[in-house]
Amino acid sequence: MIHQTGIASAIGWVDFSSEHREKVKSVIDLLSTPGVVDELGIGVIRDSFSDSLFPGISTIQTRAKYFLTVPRIFRDYEKLSASKRRGKKLATYLNDHENLCMEAMVANHEDDPQGGIIGESFAEKQGEVQRKPSSVYWTGIRQFGLIRTPLSLQAFCRRFANPDQPLQDLVQGSDKTKGDDPDAAGQENTTINGPAYMDGWIESLTVDLSKEEAYFLSNQMQARVPMSLLGQILLDSEVQTQFLSLPSEWNFTTFADEAPFLGQLPESLRKIIAGARDFWQLMYGAHVRYNCLLQMQHGTSAVRGEFEAEWDEWLEDLQSFPWARWDTGLLWKLTKIHRRRVRDNTVHFVESWIEGLRSGDDTKSLDELVTRQERFNKKGRARLNPTAEESISEWVGIADLNYRLNVARTIISDIHVAIAQSEGDDA
């Protein structure tokens, strides 16, 4: 199968605010990954499944350690005297200390190279976007109760710009609602939540978790998102071991079909896993047709022939699709739960595409659905517009849906390795 993108684009924007800048950075991070450009508008449904399976995880996270380093920087700032806080705003302090963390990690792994150090290869280049761990991990930090606040990162930093306002004033909840943190009953209702650490911690910082850090982070995830796939894997050490033993090349479809422990999971979660797997099997066909249409208008007969052959193969596989368990309503239930807005044209496209497949509609009718959806979704930038002129020789659009599986595997592995090593040391 052909799953590459060969389209290069230039993006520019007017930088009005830090919040606007962060949103643009997130879009650029996604667009920089091959095979994720969402030409048919299904990304919001994909993200709803991902939020159910691996909440707090994002595709641009790298290592579990950052869930703890960012809160520590905030806590260090909280310890500063009011005069020192007046002399340096939190946003500036955070930026400076994230750079120090990057430098320390690189230096401390010089003889032990590790992947996933954010900013390791960063070099100042005009137009390059620099991502900081605080931005990449903020949603997960809040979701796992590591910083208890409902605020965005930018709003949190602005609100805390007043050095006379304690962090406790930004806490989420009250003494009567301490949340689901396993250790909340033993603490005051502080905003920053984390295991103990030593002063000067940045100097010896590595990407590896200590035993205490791994247990703490695992417990927070289990407590805050217990019914997710992430929480269930961490709750059961045997399931965790089986999950990390699965072949690394497995995509989500193979995982959903063959992972040996799925039968042990709660039924509600099994339905979501099956729904995510089946959703992509159905929508992959739409992306194959989209690329067939692109080749008809902008490509070559040879490449079109490859995609048409893939379409025939996909149709053959569809003969065994598990229609008895399919529920289109699950898609809209999950988007509502996770407060993700789906455009009306996307709802119509997805429902019409699935019903067309179930009813055995001809290819021409299905092509019309795909063409109309791409034009709705991309408007003047639609490649299937009659006036569009472009040369396309490779796959365009989403190539696979893995629902954050690979990143979650890295995060869980970091926790598992630290705990396994500590148990070995204690033996």
Describe this structure in words.
The chain folds into 2 domains: 1-6 and 14-58 and 215-427, no CATH class; 65-208, no CATH class. It is mostly helical and 427 residues long. 54% of the residues lie in helices and 0% in strands. It has 17 helices and no strands. The relative contact order is 0.16. The chain has helices at 18-31, 43-53, 66-79, 82-87, 90-108, 133-143, 153-159, 211-224, 229-235, 237-245, 252-258, 267-298, 301-318, 329-337, 344-359, 363-378, 405-426.
How would the blueprint of this fold be written?
Blueprint: H1 18-31, H2 43-53, H3 66-79, H4 82-87, H5 90-108, H6 133-143, H7 153-159, H8 211-224, H9 229-235, H10 237-245, H11 252-258, H12 267-298, H13 301-318, H14 329-337, H15 344-359, H16 363-378, H17 405-426
Mean pLDDT: 86
Helix vs. strand class: mainly alpha
Number of helices: 17
Question: Which bin fits the share of residues in helices?
Answer: 40-55%
How many E-type strands?
A: 0
Q: Bin the strand percentage.
A: under 5%
Global outline:
globular
Global Rg = 24 Å
Low-confidence stretches: 4-35, 123-129, 172-181, 184-189
Distance from first to last alpha carbon: 49 Å
Give the biggest beta sheet: none
Order of helix and strand elements from N to C terminus: HHHHHHHHHHHHHHHHH
Number of domains: 2
Pfam family, one: DUF6361
InterPro entries: DUF6361
